[in-house]
Amino acid sequence: MSTPTTTRExxxxxxxxxxxxxxxxxxVEAELPELAEGQVLVRTTxxxxxxxxxxxxxxxxxxxxxxxxxxxxxxxxxxxxxxxxSPDRSVGDVVLHGLGWRExxxxxxxxxxxxxxxxxxxxxxxxxxxxxxxxAYVGLTAVAELxxxxxxxxxxxxxxxxxxxxxxxxxLGASQVVGSAGSATKVARLRELGVDAAFDYHDGPVAEQxxxxxxxxxxxxxxxxxxxxxxxxxxxxxxxxxxxxxxxxSQYDAAEAQGxxxxxxxxxxxxxxxxxxxxxxxxxxxxxxxxxxxWLADGSIQTDETVVEGLENAPEAFIGxxxxxxxxxxxxxxx
Length: 335
What we know:
Layout: E1 6-12, E2 25-31, E3 39-48, E4 77-84, E5 94-97, E6 104-108, E7 113-114, H1 131-143, E8 151-154, H2 162-171, E9 176-181, H3 184-192, E10 197-200, H4 206-213, E11 218-223, H5 228-236, E12 237-245, H6 264-269, E13 272-275, H7 285-297, E14 305-309, H8 314-322, E15 329-333
Parallel strand pairs: 8-9, 8-11, 9-10, 11-12, 12-13, 14-15
Antiparallel strand pairs: 1-2, 3-4, 3-6, 3-15, 4-5, 5-7
Helix pairs in contact: 1-2, 1-7, 4-5
C-alpha cells in the first residue's frame, strides 16, 4: 500500500460565541510533510472529543494554548503506524497520540504510546484506560482524598469521566454514591452502574434534589459541571468536606461564568475546594493503569461509549457532547 501524501483535517474556522456551530469548523485537505528522523506516520482509527476543548477555542490564556483559527484542532487519538523513521516504533504498532481531528498524523515517535489491544480495544485508551479514567481516579484519590465511608456526589455522572468516577468511588470505599445527569435515560443507566441515588438536574433545583438524595450530606464532591451544581454541593457538604474541581461544562459557553453564591459557608464548614489538571498527576498513571486493568478484567467497571463515524462528523459529535447527547465517552471513528 502506498504511503499517503495528503490527508483530511478539521480546522478551527472561527472562534465561537456561545455554543459552537457547524460554521466554527472547516474540513480541509492538507499536504502531509515528509517524515523526519524519529517521526512516524499514523493512520488514525479513533479520536476523542472532550469538554476541555471548548475553552481552547477562545483566545484566552489557560493551562493549554488556545486553538488557532485556520489551523487544525488536536486531541487524543489512537491509530496504526503506517510509516516509521524511528527505531522505537514499527509499522503496524497501535499507538496513542495527541494529534486527533485528522485522518493521518506525522508525530514524533516519543510523543506516542503503544497500547495493548489484547487488554482492550484501542479506543478504550481514549476512555477508561486513558485520560478520562485517570482523571476520575486522580480526582477521587489524590485531589479529594476519598476515605472509606465517604458520601460522594458526582455531577455529569453519565459522561466520560463521571460514569467512571461513580463506579470507582464505590470500589474505593464510598458508603453512598449520588450522581446527577441530564435525562431520565441517563439516570436509569446510573442506577445500573450501582449508584445509590441519581437525579435529572432538569427536574428541579439541584440543591433540593441533592438534599433529598443525600439527606445526611456529602463528604466529597467531584465537580464536572460547576455553576448551580457546585453551589448545591457546597450547601450539602458536611464539615471538612472536599471538592475536586475537574470541570465546569455548564459555564463553557457562557459569556460570563457564574460562580456559587454561598462560598462564605465553605469557611465555617472547613471545606477544601481544589482544582486540578490531570497532566500534573502523570506519575499516578502506572498505579491507575494496574488498578483499572484489574477492574475491567473482573467486570467491576463497565464502560459506555457513544460512537460517531467519520471525520466529517467530528464537529457534530463535539457539539453533541457539549449538549449532553453522549452517554459515557464520545468517540469518533475514522475507519
